[in-house]
Amino acid sequence: MAAEQDPEERAVVRPLLTDLYQATMALGYWRAGRARDPAEFELFFRCCPFGGAFALAAGLHDCVRFLRTFRLRDADVQFLASVLPPDTDPAFFEHLRALDCSGVTVRALPEGSLVFPGVPLLQVSGPLLVVQLLETPLLCLVGYASLISTNAARLRLIAGPEKRLLEMGLRRAQGPDAGLTASTYSYLGGFDGSSNMLAGQLRGVPVVGTLAHSFVTSFSGTEVPPDPMLAPAAGQGPRVDLAASVEVWLERVCTYMGLGVQDPHPGERAAFVAYALAFPRAFQGLLDTYSVRRSGLPNFLAVALALGELGYHAVGVRLDSGDLLRQAQEIRGLFRTTAAQFQVPWLESVPIAVSNNIDEGELARLVQEGSEVNVIGIGASVVTCPRQPSLGCVYKLVSVRGQPRMKLTEDPEKQTLPGSKAAFRLLGSDGSPLLDVLQLAEEPPPQAGQELRVWPRGAREPCIVTPAHVEPLLRLWVQQGQLCEPLPPLAEARALAQLSLSRLSPVHRRLEQPELYQVALSEKLQALVERLRARGPQ
């Protein structure tokens, strides 16, 4: 497959980002004359993450980009030659040099889809040697992206639809690649934006950010702005010395708050003035560098009210320490009384943003009824997934030359489902998912309104279900190396995720002790499984 110009090329995974045993198996296949045998693998997970009952499919965009650029360079082949036996036939390395994904076909769930244990996120078919080499990179690309999306979705469910959630975890991520992936797929999972500019440039994630404590502490208060003059927001009227106006407002604010004008830190105020001059339409105050009540708030109010006289409205304040919920309530109270005192009603609704090691528990506290928090920045808890660091995806062979293959093991949970398969979601009359059905690819699809006899996984007996609607899950995205349809943009995948979650039953959507969602096998697939189990190792 010819590689196309791609603005994301710098982020593409390279073929040697894989395990050595993929190369040793490739040599084994080639030596046995089986390199071009048609084969199919499925990528799936066995248990939902975080003790929940759902996951979100993600990473397809990255997988397709990887497949379209897959090619072993001379340096790659030379390295492989250095780690494989020295007497390896040189013809094998010539075979590797010619490899690409022009014979690879991929079916997958659209990004943002709900996915459950055992249901393939990807089905990858093509020449055995090639699709074997793809295993580790595809697992890496899908597993982390899906884990991040699911983690973000859980945080969004806790926060509810009204609070703004911002991902701020790049500096906490396990490396730059993980940081970019986390910023991208936390957005898919329901966050509103990210601090990561590269995610904005490459993937269109809305980027957000204002200032840090270092900006505030860099000012001492002796600095004189080179140009303190600011024109009114409407563009008409004389320019005003903002720094001087702030000092006038500071005296009024301090008198109202019962403070001395010497109490607020002059360096903090100088920092706020400098930021307001640079961003008069997007001024936000970071309140807790020194003291929220005695410094941050009066300095912010002085600058915000000086801007307000010119027609500009501050866009928010941020807290990064202390009891965030209590402080937000106190700040909102002060904004309301100050708005009434100075007759500036816009001040009442200035958004309050918080951050500081926020996890699921703290988030639930911050969004409780009566909370005055509007915007919540989350870092480590979204990008590192501390409750479960890996989704545990696997990539298993299901057919070779059209013949089903099944892993038989003493651990029943690790037994695989054989054969090339189709997957369907059976829906109730209200559009909510009832269960997912896996069946052999040659079987006719289930029909809405018709009884279907299926075997829920782990059950001893079949059950009968009559779906009101039937939804095919796996779509053909790549056929013989060619992209079949454009991949949906990230924002569309994000919308699909939220829609899918809204349709999921509350008993499956709840985050603690949910009812497990059922995945079932068709009678024909169940019969094949039982036949292969009975036959045992051959």
TrEMBL record:
Cofactor dependency: Mn(2+); Mg(2+)
Annotated pathway: Cofactor biosynthesis; NAD(+) biosynthesis; nicotinate D-ribonucleotide from nicotinate: step 1/1
Positions of the Nicotinate phosphoribosyltransferase C-terminal domain: 421-528
PTM description: Transiently phosphorylated on a His residue during the reaction cycle. Phosphorylation strongly increases the affinity for substrates and increases the rate of nicotinate D-ribonucleotide production. Dephosphorylation regenerates the low-affinity form of the enzyme, leading to product release.
The enzyme's E.C. designation: 6.3.4.21
Record-linked InterPro entries: Aldolase_TIM (IPR013785), NAPRTase_C (IPR041619), NAPRTase_N (IPR040727), Nic_PRibTrfase-Fam (IPR007229), Nic_PRibTrfase_pncB (IPR006405), Nicotinate_pribotase-like_C (IPR036068)
Classification via Pfam families: NAPRTase_C, NAPRTase_N
GO molecular function, one term: glycosyltransferase activity
Known partners and oligomeric status: Homodimer.
PANTHER family cross-referenced by the UniProt entry: NICOTINATE PHOSPHORIBOSYLTRANSFERASE
Keywords in alphabetical order: Cytoplasm, Glycosyltransferase, Ligase, Magnesium, Manganese, Metal-binding, Phosphoprotein, Pyridine nucleotide biosynthesis, Transferase
Similarity annotation: Belongs to the NAPRTase family.
Protein name: Nicotinate phosphoribosyltransferase
Residue ranges of domain Nicotinate phosphoribosyltransferase N-terminal in the record: 16-142
Localisation: Cytoplasm, Cytosol
GO BP annotations listed: NAD+ biosynthetic process via the salvage pathway
Predominant cellular place of this UniProt entry's protein: cytoplasm
Organism: Rousettus aegyptiacus
